[in-house]
Protein 1
Amino acid sequence: MMRPGIYPNIPDHKYRALPFLNWSRLKLVLDCPSKAKHYSDYGGGFVSEPMRRGTRVHTAVLESSKWNQTYKIKPDITKQELSFEKKPEGWMCAHPRGVIGPFKTKREAQDVAPLYTFDGADQGWPKAADAKTAMADIYDGFKLITRDQHDHAMDTAQAVFSHKASADLLFSKMNTELTFVWVEEIGGHEILCKGRADGYSRTAKVMIDLKTCKDSTLWGFSKDAFYRKYHAQLAFYARGLEKASKQSGELVPWQVSRLAFIAVEHEPPFATSFIELDP
């Protein structure tokens, strides 16, 4: 069992697998206890494209070194140019990578001809479904995305890095995707909790949360933050980090005196704001 403490290098999938109370579950309880019970009994809900888009932006901004280990642009499945010729020994099929045959009939040659392929493959397949299966095997472990999705994440990240207040923190000695585990005592029970901060600077004692949004102005984002309880999420994480630090016996506590959001719009030109919460 994982003990209370701060864990800087836990991959996201391992963090999600930790069976501890997190903000998402707590927020469900606050919003609707019956939904929280349903989630507990039957698992999580549908992962929407906006949620996946936010994950891509997080990786591009906070874990850019892991981008190429996580995402690949999905190649198009295309048809190859094939030609069939009857020779004394039988029917032959010529394709860009060579010639196969002989076959007794042209139909037999067509049935096995490598008609479908894609960039990155060293062969072809007679059916598009076969090529699709092969693609899944070749890119196993990667998330396949479109060129537009790739460019959107890169352009969003560039906008964040071009925003001075945000960049000054992100390019400082900041821990990103920082995992921590702590114990809360509630009603005489000890409950293990977990959190994962987008960014934390021990020097500046600031914790940040990166959010994609429709409106990054102070007024527009504040309304969204209040509705989605972003401020409560950051407060939960700040409390958790400080408790994890103390409960793990850190000689110098990890303190949080500032909470802030990097809000970036999800449409061009990806306007970005750095919004700090009042103490």
Protein 2
Amino acid sequence: MESARTQVRSAVVGGEIYVAGGSTITGQSDVFEVYDPIANHWHALQSMPDGRELFGMAGLGLSVYIAGGLSSWSKGKPTATVYAFDTKNGSWKKRADLPEARAGLSLIAAGNALYAIGGRGTSASSVYRYNPDTDQWSTLKAALPETRTGHAYAVKGERIFVMGGRSLSGQALTRVDILDTKSGTWTSGPGLPNAIVSATADFVGERLHIAGGTAPLAHRTLTSHWALDSGKWISAKALRTARQGLTSATVDGKWYVMGGGAGDGALAVFTETDAVEIYTP
């Protein structure tokens, strides 16, 4: 990446990987950059309207959306603001705020909508759906079964997988919850082998993968990499560097794992990295 950050976020639009924000020693980052996998080249884009960490980010259509998090403008408090970056004209535009301020949420594109899931807020179990055509948010009837932050997520078709993280009472989680966005219902998936917080996940081909993060009970950052095979988690090739607060994206069958910090907990910001590792099945 162009600069080292932890708690960084990413999204794919048009076969390119957009990476934004995160934490640095100096505070919330407003860095916004894009990687072209074909040219193997990073370049900087117009900065985000504000520095952010613990926010949500997703690509939908030709736009990259950022939502919530801790903003440099909100002086460390959660924000509800949402912006969209038009990848064609290279500019940011304000969009409708989240129904509530949240930090530690995920913003996930599935079908023709965005879903804001998890994090800390006044109604943390609520799942919000965004319609880009009307610029409006609505609340799903089915709430998140376990409120959490620091979770990983991945999307397959119309299903969103929410994995691990930490409950708002502080318990590290192994549970996997799956939202069927078509029916609006949640089901349980195979639990993770260990409780993992601040990992990253994605589908690579037909398999669900999760890597990195921290093991809170052991107070250590992880290189572990697990893949879901026929309903069971199996160990896969480990990361070269242990890190948490990392992000990832899959393009043309390759899984790009980016950024993060090697230190456990608050030490991550002092050990931030710009490293990118590529996994090919």
